[in-house]
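Continuing the series of single-chain predictions for the mutant panel. This is the parent chain; the variants come on the following pages.
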Amino acid sequence: MKHAIKSGVYVGLMLIIINIMIYIIDAASFAKWWVGISLIILVFVLVIYFGLQYRKEADGGYLSFKEAYLHGLVTFLIAGILGAIYNLILFNIIDPNLSSLLTDAIVDQSYAMMKNFGAPEEQIDKAIAQIKEDTPARFTLVGQLKGFGWNIVGALVISLITGAIVKKKKPEEI
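Parent structure:
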């Protein structure tokens, strides 16, 4: 578990540094779908990398699925905890106005997307009103905690995938 905790700290700190750079360059980029997808892919790759590194150090280069799964899960959870703490500090202390900036960016992007898909103006107006109502709650303390809860669910599932990739059975187990 020590390796997984250390890996989680590395992943969490990398994500915080990347988030700080995004915040400094253009905070509205947090609302862009490709930024979120890119960060998810980065975390996925890093968890696999650290899992393979752990496997090399483990029992002759072999690692059971259970051990690989737990390593990935702990790595995800530690990184998630660090990220959640950072987000709470960012949205509540460093820049309490960031949530309104992101809400506006999400509204603008949603409007443009719906318009490009040819959605009727009435439907767009209804969707935008719902986004304006729902989005600010995502950045509150309760909203951040709910988001972390969903991240845990995601970590449970994604760890199954990373565990399957990282595991390596001993020849007698095959």
